[in-house]
């Protein structure tokens, strides 16, 4: 039995090849050897509310639902692009929403799961934006807009974000090492799994004077990245899209 972890697919109608790659991924990981699938944020390029009527999104929801019907639980953690996903989506896809961060225990080992954006604390502009957009007041205000108004707003945010990102140093856009250690110590774990940075790798570090590791999931662009944990052995893997 093994666990599966993915993040940062950024599914969108303009990227049908990634959607098809995700469907292939599901079809090749649907045996009784899969114990659960964890999606750690930015599954969609943007999620504007559970009332979004984009046909492709409804197809994806149905695929998730069908996958869960094989007896494979699906767990979903919000990212910085799909934090407006709510209970209506969860019911339709038959999945469980997770808080960020979440600790899971598998084969007597604790794993800390995060999207990863909250660890990029050197990016003060983003951290301020993140704090604002996670408030109930801001979300209610956005969801009160029409879908067309939300789409227009999201488009303007993406353009601004891309422009600002191009001007920032690489280390600002990555996680802050001290905060990684801090959050792992707070949760008493030796393994952290996250996405967001689009820099797939396994990093070794020291936490509470003991060896630890930070596993970064990759974004789905040229390759589809996923992590498997079989027993107590994590394996970061990829396939061509």
Summary, kept brief:
With about 240 residues, the protein is α/β, with parallel strands linked by helices. Helix content is about 35%, strand content about 25%. The protein has one domain: Purple Acid Phosphatase, chain A, domain 2 (4-Layer Sandwich).
Write structural notes for this entry:
By secondary structure, the chain is of the alpha/beta class. The protein has one domain (2-240): Metallo-dependent phosphatases (Purple Acid Phosphatase, chain A, domain 2, 4-Layer Sandwich). The protein is built from 8 helices and 11 strands. It has helices at residues 16-28, 55-68, 87-93, 124-133, 136-143, 147-165, 170-173, 177-186; strands at 2-6, 34-40, 74-77, 96-98, 102-106, 109-113, 191-194, 201-207, 210-216, 223-230, 233-240. The strands form 2 sheets. A 6-stranded mixed β-sheet has the order 4-3-2-1-10-11. A 5-stranded mixed β-sheet has the order 5-6-7-9-8, with helices on one face. The two termini are 26 Å apart.
Give the CATH architecture.
4-Layer Sandwich
What is the H level of CATH, i.e. the homologous superfamily?
Metallo-dependent phosphatases
The largest β sheet comes out as:
6 strands, mixed
Distance between the termini: 26 Å
Helix content: 25-40%
Widest beta sheet: strand line-up: 4-3-2-1-10-11
Task: Please tell me what the overall shape is.
Answer: globular
Radius of gyration from the CA trace?
18 Å
For the record, the count of structural domains works out to 1
What portion of residues belong to β-strands?
25-35%
CATH class: Alpha Beta
Task: Write the CATH fold name.
Answer: Purple Acid Phosphatase, chain A, domain 2
Low-confidence spans: pLDDT under 50, at least 5 residues? Answer: none
| Mean residue pLDDT | 93
């Amino acid at each position: 039995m093994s666990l599966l972890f993915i993040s940062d697919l950024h599914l969108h109608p303009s990227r049908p090849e990634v959607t098809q790659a995700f469907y292939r991924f599901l079809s090749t990981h649907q045996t009784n050897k899969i114990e659960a699938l964890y999606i750690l944020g930015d599954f969609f390029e943007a999620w504007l509310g559970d009332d979004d009527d984009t046909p492709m999104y409804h197809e994806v929801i149905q695929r998730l639902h069908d996958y869960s019907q094989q007896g494979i639980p699906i767990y979903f953690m919000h990212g910085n692009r799909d934090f407006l996903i709510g209970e209506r989506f969860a019911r339709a896809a038959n999945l469980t929403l997770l808080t960020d961060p979440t600790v899971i225990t598998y084969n007597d080992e604790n794993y800390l799961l995060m999207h990863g954006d909250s660890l990029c604390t050197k990016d003060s502009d983003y951290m301020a934006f993140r704090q604002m957009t996670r408030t109930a007041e801001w979300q209610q205000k956005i969801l009160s807009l029409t879908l067309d108004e939300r789409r227009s707003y999201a488009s303007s945010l993406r353009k601004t974000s891309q422009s600002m990102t191009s001007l920032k140093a690489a280390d600002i856009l990555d996680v802050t090492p001290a905060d990684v250690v801090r959050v792992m110590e707070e949760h008493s774990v030796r393994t952290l799994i996250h996405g967001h940075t689009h820099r797939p790798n396994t990093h070794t570090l020291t936490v509470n004077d003991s060896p630890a590791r930070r596993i970064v999931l990759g974004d789905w662009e040229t390759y589809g990245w996923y992590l498997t944990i079989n027993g107590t052995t994590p394996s970061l893997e990829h396939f061509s899209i």
